[in-house]
Amino acid sequence: MKSEEHELNDIVLEVVGVSKSFPGVKALNNVSLQIQRGEIHALVGENGAGKSTLMKILSGAYKKDSGQIFIENEVVEIKTPKEAREKGIAIVYQELSQLNRLSVAENIFIGRYKKRFGLINWNLIYKEAEMLLRKLEINIDAYSPVYSLSIAQRQLIEIARAVSMDAKVVIMDEPTSSLTKQEVALLFKIIRELKRQGVSIIYISHKLDEVYELCDRVTVFRDGNLIKTSDIKSLSRQDLIQYMIGRKLQNQYPIRSSSIGDVRISVESISDGYFIDNVSFKVHKGEILGFAGLVGSGRTETMRLIFGADKKKNGKIYIDGKEIQVNCPRDAVENKIAYITEERKVDGLLLNESVRINTSLVSLWQFCKFGILKLKSEKEAVQKYIELLKIVTPSIERKVALLSGGNQQKTVLAKWLLSNAEIVIFDEPTRGIDVGAKYEIYSLIGELAKQGKSIIVVSSELEEVMGISDRIAVMREGKIAAFLTKESFSQATILTHAIGGF
Amino acid sequence: MGTKTLKYKTLIRKLWDSLGVWLIFIVLFILLSLLSDNFLTGSNLLNIVRQISVNGIIALGATLVVMSGEIDLSQGSLAALIGCFCAMLMVRGISPIVAILIALMVGFLIGIIMGVAVAFLKVPSFITTLGMMYSLSGAVLLLTNSQPISGLPESFLVLGRGYLGFIPVPVLITTVVLIVTWFMIKFLPFGRYTLAIGENENAARLSGINVAKTRVLIFAFAGLASALGGIVLASRLSSGQPSSGSDLSLQALAAVFIGNASGKKVTNTIAGALIMGLINNGLNLMEVNASWQKVALGLILIGAVGLDVVRNKNKS
């Protein structure tokens, strides 16, 4: 396995032929990658390309199906996050998992407290923490509690923690996603300092600006395959984007003819005061507006504001030219807005209740006479939608937890169709369901548009959003970066707007 | 031998699947019939249902609270307060019917206050009702000067001590509360919303359900049930007893948790209360030290919930 080249380049981490499958998906396909000592190596690719899977294998969160991992030319088996740490791989997660009430030093050394006579030696811990912070030129007091720090400072603490464990490789997953410009500059300074000290960085990012500014080499993933590893200097942006997109796949979307009418809903510069910034758009009757963008670009957050699931700070919503007040989901439902959420198990379904109870939940008033439910008409209506959507279930009293993913998703759809909504928001409507059920859901979305309803589809799958939308809004960092009309749909255009790669 | 035990296992599982917690009731019932000659008599059986009626009423209120994923520890104190309050009104010369209506109203309002604290101020229900438990148990001592309130009118005593034909009036009252609660869960949107909130509050909210309003109503209903339980108890004891509430909250919760171990059903709460009644009655008949009743009750509570956890695990 070893060759002269390895010795020359001083490979600290090597991945050879690693594969990983999940039911129905090949998440990583025979991936081989070398990380040199003291390099900053970018991993890029679309959502679901395989970057996160590889990272999770390296950190011991997932178990690889096949392949080998070498650290400093020795084969290692990484089975738990603890083993990864012991072998010198540290991860700075996108979502920080620190103990806010404890001090900086306590967080850095948590789980590895130095002891004397069986008691924790706090003096030593604080002294070492201060030395470490000074070494990395991080200007934070080791005694301050973590909750008093900014997000960026917390990230630096995570990095210091990684260094204190003698990490040879530090993996950073989208570290700048919630940082300001100045904070990013500070982070980059620390990363370069680490590099100078011989630590290797694997830098996962969607932001090509950062990749070009910071990194030495870049590896592109697509559909679980490693497409290309290259020096960043010898790769143009166009080529990089081309590698990320790859060839076009066949079309698998029902053909439909749209007849688009007047404006139904008009959203005017809504903001949440944190992230979503002056988002405005209109959807016409019979129109499907797609929302593309990277994970974390603010699409779901925008939809939640429109639906009243979160509080908006500014902005107005008009339906048929009249302003409506949406302060809670109930207000949205009364204005005939439906929101089919991204996580059906978390906020779409009552898993331990029956198909009947789930389906009628939004529309119980339809079956009430003098405030009392008529169970028979409820049953008939639910039965009708089960047939219409071809939900496979032995009875309407079946617990939805026992249905397949596709049928669960259809149950959520049935719930909202029964409510007679005129504006239907789909958030990742086909996530985690099989191809056949996908096609049915696309057909249904088309059918709803044909009936004159206004549809919004949030999707991270570029093909999907291009396949079903009449228009596409591309979001980036809480703002709408572009509106695209059907003629200008292309993966390159969408991705370019989504990552700001001009 | 191995296949035989397996057969028993599947038999027990089948019975538990179809009967649920009523299986425990039936087994206990048969056991007590065999163990004691005095158990299977009409008067003893009526005695059992009469004894559980107050617990049943309060537990039915607790059922909705537990179904919605919350807990109410204040019910016993509230029952004692309302019982004494109602007694005081009558002693001051207010007619029983008016006194009862006023007392029920007060219970309902205290329930609303707790509901508002939980739903709008977002104080966890455990803390809200624990606090209310303390405040109310203090309030009842202040109100009554720690003295029982006796001298209640005869007509009022019918509620707790009277018979209609051969059926005790408190049993009739419990039955009515059972039917009302069952009807609410099955036929009112409010009942559905209660289930939905308990199962997945997020999904309920995103389905346009007014979660806060539903929560307030749930606690208001529990308050009403506690008040009614307190009134029936005062009638049974022929007096307002300021210390009568000490154990009632936990008894009601035990009935709910034993009963609903095998599934969320209003009728199961009554099964839970009946099981508790059987244990008390049976051990009394066998002249076992009363403290053993609590030991047995505790073990059955853990056993019933444990049984269902094991069953669900085997299923999946």
Overall description:
The complex is a heterodimer of chains A (502) and B (316). With 502 residues, chain A is an alpha/beta fold. Chain A contains 18 helices and 24 strands. Chain A is globular, with a radius of gyration of 26 Å. The two termini of chain A are 41 Å apart. Chain B has 316 residues and is mainly α. Chain B has a domain of 198 residues. Chain B has 14 helices and two strands. In chain B, strands 1-2 form a two-stranded antiparallel sheet. In chain B, strand 1 and strand 2 form a beta hairpin. The longest helix of chain B is centred in the first third of the chain and has 26 residues. Chain B is globular, with a radius of gyration of 20 Å. Chains A and B meet through helix 11 and strand 20 of A and helix 9 and helix 10 of B.
Tally of individual domains of chain A: 2
Strand content of chain B: under 5%
Assembly category: heterodimer
- Beta-strand content estimate of chain A: 25-35%
Largest sheet of chain A: 6 strands, mixed
CATH class of the largest domain in chain A: Alpha Beta
Query: How large is the count of helical segments of chain A?
Result: 18
Distance between the termini of chain A: 41 Å
Structural class of chain B: mainly alpha
> How many strands, what sense, and barrel or not for the largest sheet of chain B?
2 strands, antiparallel
Q: Any idea what the radius of gyration of chain A is? A: 26 Å
**Largest interface by Cβ-Cβ < 8 Å:** A-B, 30 and 18 residues
* Low-pLDDT segments, ≥5 res of chain A: 1-8
Strand adjacency order, main sheet of chain A = 6-9-10-3-11-12
Helix content of chain A: 25-40%
SSE run of chain B:
HHHHHHHEEHHHHHHH
Query: How many extended strands of chain A?
Result: 24
Number of strands of chain B: 2
Low-confidence stretches of chain B: none
Evaluate the radius of gyration of chain B.
20 Å
